[in-house]
Amino acid sequence: MPSETVLQVHELKKYFPIRKGILKRTVGWIRAVDEVSFSVSAGQTLGLVGESGCGKTTTGRCILRLYEPTAGSILYRLDDQLENIVEFNHAEMKRVRQKLQIIFQDPFSSLDPRMTIHDIIAEPLRINRIGTRAQQSDRVEELMDLVGLNASQMNRYPHEFSGGQRQRIGIARALALNPEMIVCDEPVSALDVSVQAQVLNLLMDLQERLNLAYLFIAHDLSVVEYISKRVVVMYLGKIVEIADATDLYQSPRHPYTEALLGAIPIPDPLAKRTRKPLTGTVPSAANPPSGCNFRTRCAYAQDVCAREEPPLTQIDGDRSVACHFADELELTGFSRGGTSRLPIHSALPNMNYGSSMAGAPG
Amino acid sequence: MSEASPGPAKLALGKQQGLSQWDLMYIKFRRHRLAMFSGVFLILVYIVILFAEFFSPYPTNEKFGKFVHTPPMPILFWDGDGLSRPFVYGYNQELDIETFQRTYVADTTQKYYLKFFTKGSEYSLLGLVATDIHFFGVDEPGLIFLFGTDRFGQDVFSRVLTGAQVTLTAGMLSVAISVALGAVLGTLSGYYGGVVDLIVQRVIEFLSSIPRIPLWMTLAAVMPTDWSSVRIYFGIITILAFLGWMGMAREVRGKVLILRSMDYVMAAKAGGASGAYNIFKHMLPNALSHIIVVATLAVPVMIIVETSLSFLGFGIQPPMTSLGALLREAQNVQSVVNFPWLFSPAIVIIVTTLAFNFLGDGLRDAADPYSQ
Amino acid sequence: MTEQQDTLLRVSGLKTHFRTEQGTIRAVDGIDFEIKRGETFGIVGESGCGKSVTAYSIMQLIERPQGDIVSGSIEYMGEGARPIDIAALDPNGPDMRNLRGNEIGMIFQEPMTSLNPIYTIGNQIIEAIVLHQRVSKMEARKRAIELLDRVGLSDPRSQIDDYPHQLSGGMRQRVMIAMALSCNPRLLIADEPTTALDVTVEAQILDLMRDLQQDFGMSIMLITHNLGVVAENCDRVMVMYLGKVIEEGSAVDIFYNPRHPYTHGLLESIPQIGLSSRLTPIEGAVPMMQDIPTGCTFAPRCPHVMAICEDDPPMLFPSDSERTKCWLYSEEALPQHAK
I need a surface site. Which of A189, A265, B109, B266 has the fewest CB within 10 A? Predict the structure, then answer.
C-alpha cells in the first residue's frame, strides 16, 4: 500500500557565501546542499547519512527554514495538500511548524539553561498561544509521561538531568504541537552507548503510537539501518544513492556507499573481512571537483567521470543512484565476514540462578 | 525564571534540586570569599559616599585658616591614666625657626571626646532633607581632622568623601549608560548581522582607533566654562560613556553570536518564535550574567579615567571636587615629602578599584556555574 | 619467568582522585591490569568511567593540584631488568619526561587542538625528536620526513612545512601518530583516536595503526567507547564502569561470552547491521560522580541485582581467561544469599 507523502524536497540548494575583506564582498560560494531531491512518507523514517560536511544537517535545517534555501522547493502536506513552504511568510510558517518539528544533536545546547523543564516543553505552546496556562501544564505532564520522564520533575532545571533525559526533554518539546513529522538531527550521536539505545527505542515507539514521519540525520550507519526504512546517502552536498535500507546495505550501487559500508567497524572480533579503504579526504565544498564529486577518491573512476556529472537516475524500481557505472559495477555490500552468527547472546552463565535471586529477601 | 536567591535552609540542604541558574551562581559566588567581601565593602563605600555630607564632619569648602597642613589626628582610646572613650587631643602650632615650617604638637591637656550624631553645619541630605546632624564630630572648640588638612586648612577627610561621591558615582553612571548603549548595539549587531553589523563594527573600530587621552581632553575642554559644576559632572559622565560603550558592544555581540547558534534558539525558531522573542526570552537573559561581569570590571576603568581627567584639570571643576581633582593638590614634590596625607584620595581609588576587580573576578567565576 | 618478561606495564591498585567543590571525585578507583608486549589492549566504557584518566595517570598528565594519584603503582618494564614505578615519579622530573615520548607515546581525541597552530608540523616533530635523541636538526628533519611518509602523507617533503590548519582532521591525526612514534616508544596510548573522525577516515587511521604496530612492535593501549573499534583492533579488553574495572578478558571472550551484566547490556545496546530485532538497552543512566552507589556501582541499573550487590562491592572473580567483578560469579555469595 503506497503511503502518503508528507514532505517532498525538490532540487533544494543551499549555498553559503564566502565573504572577504572589510566590506565583506562575496568571493565564492560553499555549495552545502546542491540540488537535493527526496520525499518522506507519512509514518516512516527516511535516514540521511554522510560524513561531516556532506550537507545533511544543512538539508534538515533548510526544510524547517531555519536556513533560507537558495533555490528549490519544499512541499509539505498541510490539510491533505502539498504546499510549497519556501514562499511562506512568518505567519504561514507558524502553521507549518506546528506540523513539522526538529530535535537536535547536542542535549546540552538544545535546552535553555535558565528555563525550567516545564517552560522548555511548554515553549511551543506559549509561542503559538495554545491553551490556558493550566492546559499547557496538563499537556507538559502528558508529554513528560509520553517520553518516559517523571512529570513531578517539571520544575527542575536542565542541568539536573543526564544527557539521555535531556534528549527526552527535547523530544517532548518537539511533540508539544502534535507534529506529523520530525527532523531528527543526529539525535543520539552525543549519547553514551547504553543511553543511545533507549532513545532510539523511544523514537520508534513514538513513531508507532503517533504515526510520525522522521527524517533521521546521522553519521552512524548502524543506527540509521536500525531505525530507517529508506536511506539517502549524501556526499559533498549531493545525493549519491537512495534506496530501501535492506537493499542499500546488502547491495550498494554507488562506490561511495560501498566504501562507507566497508568502513563500519564490526563489533565481532572474529569477523574477517578485507576492506578497500577510501584514499584521500573530502574535497572542499567551495571548490568541488568537475564532473562526479566523488571521482577524486573513487576506485572505479574513469575519464567520463571527470567530464560529466552523473545525474541521480532511477534504477530497478525504487532506488536511485548517481553514478555512470551503476549498472556495471559489482559492489560488495555489508558483510560481517567469517562468522554468520552474531557474537553476543550467550547467556550469562549464572543468569538464571541470579535472576531468581533478584526478588529474594536479603 | 526564578531569580529569587535560595534561603539558608535551601543552601544547607546541599541538594541541588530545582535550583535555577541564578541560584547556582549565587551559591558559587558565595564560595568566592574575596569577591563576597569586596561586594559587601563596595556596598558600604557607596552608602557612605551617597551620604557624604552626613559622614563628613565639616563642609567640603570650609577653611580653617589657622590649621594649614595639619597632619592626620589619630583617634585615641588611651590617655596617660588608662582606657578612655575615643577622643582626640587639641593641637598647638609651633613655628620651626630654622626651616620656617609650621609643626603641630598634640596638647595632652585638651581632650575632646568623639561624639556621634552631633550637630554641626547645616546641609541638605541628598538635596532633599535639610539637617545639621553629622555622623561624628567633637565639641567646639576642638577640631577633628582624620586625614589632616590641605594648604587652605580644609578637612581632607570631608573632601575625600565628597570627592569620592563624584568620582565613584560618575564611574557607575557612565558604565550604566555605556552598558545600555553597548547591549543594544551589540545585540542588534550580533543577531541581525549583515549591514547593521558591518556599520556598528566599523564605527567601533573607528572610535577605538582615536587616541583616548587627547580625545577625552579635547571633549572635556570644549565644555563651556560657564556651565555649572553639576552640568560639567553630567558632561563628563556622557563623555566617559560615549567612549566606553565599544568594548561593551563587542562583548555582547560576541556572546550573542554564540547564543544565536545555540540549538535552543533554533528550537524556539522552529516552534515559530520571532526574532524579538528570541532576543528577549533567550539571548538577553543568558547574556545578562556576562554583561554584569563586564560592567563590573568596567567601573574601575571609568573611575581611573575620570581621575586622570580631573587630575589633568579637564574634569570636575571647583567648587565641585573629585578624587582626581584632590590629587592635583599633591602634584609637587614638596607635598609628597612633607604632607603625605594629601595622597589619601589615591588610597581610596586603589582600594575601590581593587574591590571592583575582585568582585568582577568572583562574578565571572559564578557566571559559569557548571564549570568546576 | 617468561610471564614476567611478557609484561610491559603493570598497573595495580591505581586510584586517581579529583578534589572539587562538590567533594572528591574518584575518577579511577582501584584498578589493576597488565599490558603485554606487542599487544593491543582495549579499554572500553561510557563517559565518566575513568578510561581517559587512566591514560593520563600513566602519562602523569593529571591536572594538579585538583587531581592526584592517591595510591597504587604503575610499573613500567622498559629496557632494564628493574621496573620503574611511574606513580612514584615526579610528574615534572627528568625521569618522567624521558619516559614520556621516548618510552610511551600518546595520541589524543582532538587532532585539532593537540597540534600547536603556530608551528609547522615539521617543527613540532623535529622538536620531539631532538628533545629525546641526540641527533642534529638535519637528521631529525630527515627522520621526520620518513615518519610522515610512513603514516601516509602523500607528499611529506613539502607537507612537512605545512601548518596544522592546512591539513584535514585525518591528516592531523596521522601527524600526531608520527609525532608519537618519533622516538620508537614501546607503548602507544591512543585516547579515542578516531572519535572525532568520519567513518571512512577512522578506518584509514585504524588500518595505519595496525600496520605500524607490526613494523614497530609496540604495545597499544586503545581507549574508546566504540565496541566495533575494540572488536576489530584489540587482543584483550578491559571494561570500565565508574572508575572500576568490571570485566577483563580476551576480545573473543568479551564479545562472545560476556560475563558481567554491564558488558552484556552494552553489547545488547548497539545496533548491528542485518539484525533487525529490537535493542534491549541498559536501564537508567550513569549516575553523577557525586552520588555513586555503595556496594556494586552497577547495582541500580543491573537486571540481575541481588541483595548483596547493594551492600558490598564485589571483588574481581577470575576464571580461566577472564576476570569479572560481579557477585554472580562468587562461589560463596550465591549459596549464602540463596538461603
Answer: B109
pLDDT band for position A274 (cuts 50, 70, 90): low
- Domain boundary pick from C125, C145, C180: C180
CB contact under 8 A, C269 and A193: yes
> Which SS3 state, helix, strand or coil, does residue C54 take?
helix
Chain A nearest-CA residue for B201: A22
- Chain-chain contact of A127 with B262 (C-beta, under 8 angstroms): no
Quote the number of domains for chain C. Answer: 2
A274 touches C at CB < 8 Å:
no
Alpha carbon distance A345, C328 (integer Å): 17
| Interval A340-356: pLDDT, tens | 344 444 444 444 333 33
For testing contact with chain B, the best of C17, C19, C21, C66 (most B CBs within 10 A): C21
Q: Which residues contact A238 (CB under 8 A, 6 or more apart)?
A: A34, A35, A36, A55, A293, A312, A322
Helix (H, G, I), strand (E, B) or coil at B327: helix
CB contact under 8 A, B286 and A106: no
Model ipTM value: 0.86
Q: Give the domain range for residue C125.
A: 116-180
Q: What gap in Å lies between CA B17 and CA B31, rounded to an integer?
A: 19
Whether C27 is covered by a domain: the verdict is no
Mind listing the pLDDT tens digit for each residue in A141-186? Answer: 999 999 999 988 899 988 888 888 999 999 999 999 999 999 999 9
Comparing alpha-carbon positions, the chain B residue that sits nearest to A95 is B272
Is C236 contained in some domain? no
B271, A173: Cβ pair inside 8 Å? yes
Torsion region of A21: left, alpha or beta (phi above 0 gives left; psi -120 to 50 gives alpha): left
Dihedral of the alpha carbons of C320, C322, C323, C326, in degrees to the nearest 10: -100
Cβ(A241)–Cβ(A217) below 8 Å? no
pLDDT in tens, B298-322: 888 888 888 888 888 777 777 788 8
Helices (H), chain A: 56-63, 90-99, 117-127, 133-146, 163-175, 193-210, 221-227, 245-250, 255-263, 303-307, 351-358
Tell me which of C150, C180, C210 is where a domain ends. C180
Q: Cβ contact (<8 Å) for B264 and A109?
A: yes
Residue C146 contacts by C-beta under 8 Å, 6 or more apart in sequence?
C156
Test the A interface: residue of C174, C270, C289, C320 with most A CBs within 10 Å: C270
Residue C100, in any domain of the structure? no
Q: Chain A: nearest CA to C150, how far in angstroms?
A: 15
Q: Is residue C127 part of a domain?
A: yes
Give the residue on A whose Cα is nearest the Cα of C280. A197
Phi-psi region for residue A342, left (φ > 0), alpha (ψ -120 to 50) or beta?
beta
